[in-house]
Amino acid sequence: MHTQVGIIGAGPAGLLLGQMLHVKGIDSVILESRNQDYVIDRVRAGVLEQSTADFMDAMGVGDRLHREGMRHEDVYVSFGGRRHLIPLAELTGGKAIYVYGQNEVVKDLMNARLATGRPLHYEVSDVSVHDINTDQPRIRYRHNGSDQELICDFIAGCDGFHGICRPALASALGDAAKFYDRTYPCGWLGILADAPPSSDALVYTYHERGFALYSMRSQKITRLYFQVPPDEDIRDWSDEAIWEEMLARMTTVDGWKPNVGPILNKNVTAMRSFVAEPMNAGRLFLAGDAAHIVPPTGAKGLNLAAADVLLLGRAFAQFYRESKTDLLARYSCEALKRVWKAQRFSWWMTQTLHKFPGENPFDYQRQLADLDYIVGSKAAMTSLAENYVGLPIDVAF
Ligand SMILES: Cc1cc2nc3c(=O)[nH]c(=O)nc-3n(C[C@H](O)[C@H](O)[C@H](O)COP(=O)(O)OP(=O)(O)OC[C@H]3O[C@@H](n4cnc5c(N)ncnc54)[C@H](O)[C@@H]3O)c2cc1C
């Protein structure tokens, strides 16, 4: 079998790349190790930047996002028992964020893929990449009980943080590959609750008991988090204890608090920053979590994956349209510029809004002063707003 671009992974990065290549008239085969329901059911991101929403529109997959997603023009920062409004759209010339679950993004992209008739194989195993330094790289895998080989012009490694593509890049590049890593001494306990939102905007809370985040997935479902130690066992948290902690951290002096309802899903996620550099080796190109992850505080992971895809898809399009390779050669460098800015913002949000072990009352007061400065200064608020809605991508769709 031969294809132009072999895509490993059918998460947001792989599916969006497949869609963009289709729009540009380029062939691809997508290989995914899990089954379709597993990929859809994973509860993960829920905040899309303006440019991610614009990208989905341009790729013809934004209709349901606008029908069922929620456009938010503001966000709250809460501390000292008070919520402070950050008017995102007013500060950024009309840009906003969209609350639309990753599950829905993935579902829309899977349906779009199905409509193209182009291949997307689920439940493949034993995936490996070969000959990435030649102009005919190959992917070997097992599917439906038989061994397969896919000869490609290029391979896109969109297989997430635990995939096989980054290790393949590392062994191809040896010492030329650099990996930057930071783990945080905390995780997030997250719940999905059958409770209608009590706020029309997300609420980022810094409380003396630690960080908490109020968000939502729909008009009926809320998604809430609070900071816990990274190795916290979710089985130690009854639903009653979770609500007690949520309410203790989130309730404000004016009486605002989340609506309480049955918990549909609960888990603990560790937090990490990671960057692989460069993001390509020969004809293997990484995109999304395969190349970088951010702590979820800045809501950047899925959006960075989309930004990578935009740059990579454009580079493939240039190659097939004009037989030029300069955009492919610049892909890693261009993508990493945005990745590092998102890393900086995600790290800053994390260290400003969380309590870390070993910190003392000085640190707590310093963090409160930081937050007080943000809500009291238009310049500081604008900086937060422009990062939160997403820095501009200087690429036409
Ligand atoms: C709890 C949580 C909350 C988050 N909240 C946010 C948020 O609010 N906003 C935000 O922007 N981001 C958020 N993120 C991050 C976001 O979910 C990820 O950044 C996003 O999923 C990255 O997409 P991806 O396609 O690069 O990787 P993934 O979604 O990980 O997709 C990779 C795919 O590759 C498949 N795969 C792996 N190995 C192989 C293999 N060997 N062969 C074939 N297929 C393979 C996997 O099964 C998977 O389907 C959150 C993440 C978590 C865990």
Notes on the protein architecture:
With 397 residues, the chain is of the alpha+beta class. 38% of the residues lie in helices and 28% in strands. Strands 1, 2, 8, 9, 10, 11, 17 and 18 form an eight-stranded mixed beta sheet that branches. Strand 1, helix 1 and strand 2 form a beta-alpha-beta unit. The chain is globular. The two termini are 30 Å apart. The mean pLDDT is 97. Flavin-adenine dinucleotide binds next to helix 1 and helix 9.
Task: Summarize the topology.
Elements: E1 2-8, H1 12-23, E2 28-31, H2 36-41, E3 47-48, H3 50-58, H4 63-68, E4 70-72, E5 75-79, E6 82-86, H5 88-91, E7 97-99, H6 102-116, E8 120-121, E9 125-130, E10 138-143, E11 146-157, H7 165-173, E12 178-193, E13 203-207, E14 210-216, E15 222-228, H8 239-250, E16 263-277, E17 280-281, E18 284-286, E19 292-293, H9 301-322, H10 326-353, H11 361-376, H12 378-388
Parallel strand pairs: 1-2, 1-11, 2-8, 5-13, 11-18
Antiparallel strand pairs: 3-7, 4-7, 5-6, 9-10, 10-11, 12-15, 12-16, 13-14, 14-15, 16-19, 17-18
Bound molecules: flavin-adenine dinucleotide.
Work out the helicity level: 25-40%
Envelope shape: globular
Instruction: List each distinct ligand once.
Output: flavin-adenine dinucleotide
Distinct helical segment count: 12
Structural class, from helix and strand content? alpha+beta
Look at the structure and give the mean pLDDT. 97
Strand elements, count: 19
How many whole angstroms does the radius of gyration measure?
21 Å
Low-confidence stretches: none
β-strand percent reads 25-35%
